[in-house]
Every structure is written in structure tokens, then in C-alpha cells.
Amino acid sequence: MRPTPLSLYDALRARQQHGRKALAVLLDPDNLDETSLLHLLSLSETHPVDYFFVGGSLVISSHQAALITLIKAHSDVPVLLFPSHSMHLDGPADGLLLLSLISGRNPDFLIGQHVVAAPRLKASGLQLLSTGYMLVDSGRPTTASYMSGTAPMPYNKPGIAACTALAGEQLGLKLMYLDGGSGAENPVSGAMIAAVREAVSAPLIVGGGLNSGEKLYAALAAGADVVVVGNHIEDKPEFLAEAVGVVASFNQVAASQRVFQ
Ligand SMILES: CC(C)=CCC/C(C)=C/CC/C(C)=C/CC/C(C)=C/COP(=O)(O)OP(=O)(O)O
Ligand SMILES: O=P(O)(O)OC[C@@H](O)CO
Ligand SMILES: [Mg+2]
User: Fold this and answer.
1) Which single residue of 53, 85, 162, 244 could bond 195 by disulfide (Cβ 3.0 to 4.6 Å)?
2) Minimum-distance ligand to the CA of 55?
3) CATH of domain 8-259
């Protein structure tokens, strides 16, 4: 009998327990046409990624569902919706990051959108991954903080991020996401990632402005379990090879260290 596949959450936990890091590529439907998506999917056959996240702060285009259908036709990589609004739920994805914006104090993004979306989410059959979403000041205003009407957490206050994540975990959120925001000038600091890592046991996703191998490596070394790259792969799809290489080499070194322990 074939074993039942692990749920998305159990697979993330299993990875984390084995010290295996993951790369998620963020696809923004507003910045992606079918030709560029097919190019990226063909690159990802040679350089396998772990997750596709799909989302953007507006989603003006109406082809999100068609893009996800195209991914599903060409790839087995799990697709997770990364919605900025309860309206952005279309497409045959595998799961959804059910974000509660715990760095902010806007009730609509803490619980309001979720109330509106709840019946549709229940009917969708999507695997829901409740996620404490934290926006961090990255040097300039970001679309996500503007659109959500919330102030990001100060860049140099790891303690605030740690207590925010801890409170989120105590409330039952299963994943944590530290985000410097799309195209962040400065990615979230290693000190903040390490403080959150220390405070909670939930798998930790980190993104925003990770546009070089060194920045990806630093986020992983500080304790990120999943690193997310959006803009830089949109601009330079060839960066996918380097990003995949950084995560793979990190995993290899970690595995060989375990053998010699
Ligand atoms: C309950 C449901 C279904 C949704 C909750 C929605 C919440 C709480 C969202 C959190 C706040 C927010 C605005 C998150 C943004 C997430 C996102 C898709 C970011 C990626 O978009 P960017 O790449 O930053 O945007 P642009 O490329 O458009 O600048
Ligand atoms: O587009 P970038 O800067 O890679 O950011 C990815 C994501 O974390 C933004 O929400
Ligand atoms: Mg974007």
C-alpha cells in the first residue's frame, strides 16, 4: 500500500526536525505572464525549488488561477497561496498561508479578512497553514505595510519580534513569517531572525530583499527554515540556480556535520 503523503504542515515540521532548509519562489500574478512562467518552470526542472508561493499586494490581473493551473500541469512542486486579501483565493493550489498580521494593530488584517474568507476557505479544500505574519522595517515604506495600513516592527528591535512571535505561537499560529517586504532595501537582520528562532519552535519563513547568495545564506544561518525570493527572480530568472545552490549546499554541510557529531 502506498504511504499517505504528509500534509504540508507535517512535511515542513519533518524538514525542520531534520535541519533541512527550503527555498520558496514567490510568483506575483501581476508581474508574470505565461511565457515567463514557463521559462521559470523549465529552469526549476534543473534547479528544483521546494515551494511556489503565489500572491501580490493587489492582484489586478485576472489570471492567477490560470497561472496556478499551468504550474500544476508542469510541476509537482507544492503551490501555496500567499494572499494579501480575502479576495485572492483563486486557483488549484495545494495550500494557503493563512496570514494574521501580528506585527500590526489593524483588526481587519488580524481577524477581519479571515472572517469574510472562512466559509470559502472551508469549502475550498485547501490545506490551511495559520501563519504569524510580521512586517519588519526595511529602510523604506513597502507595499505590504502601506496596503495593510500598519507600521512595521523596528529593524533593530529583535526583542519585539521575538515577543510578537511568541505571542503568536501561544495563540496557536503554526508558522511564523518575518518579511522585510517586497524588494526590501535591507533584509530582516540576522539578529532578529535568531531571536525569533530562539523564542518559538514553529517553522520560520523569512523573505524580503533576499537578492544575493550571501543574503540567503545569512538568513539560513541565523535560523530561517524557509527563505523566500520574489523580486530578484522576477528580474533575473537565472538567479534561481544560485538560490537553489545556496540552500542545497547549506543542507549538505548541515547533513555532514550531523554525521560527524
Ligand atoms: C484571510 C485571508 C485569505 C487573507 C489574509 C490577508 C492578510 C492578513 C494579509 C497580510 C497583509 C498583507 C498585505 C500581506 C501581503 C502579502 C503578499 C502577497 C506580499 C507579496 O506581495 P508584494 O510582492 O509585497 O507586493 P507587490 O509586488 O505588489 O509590491
Ligand atoms: O520580492 P522579495 O523582495 O524577494 O520579497 C519576497 C516576499 O517575502 C515579499 O513578501
Ligand atoms: Mg511582488
Assistant:
1) 162
2) 1
3) 3.20.20.390
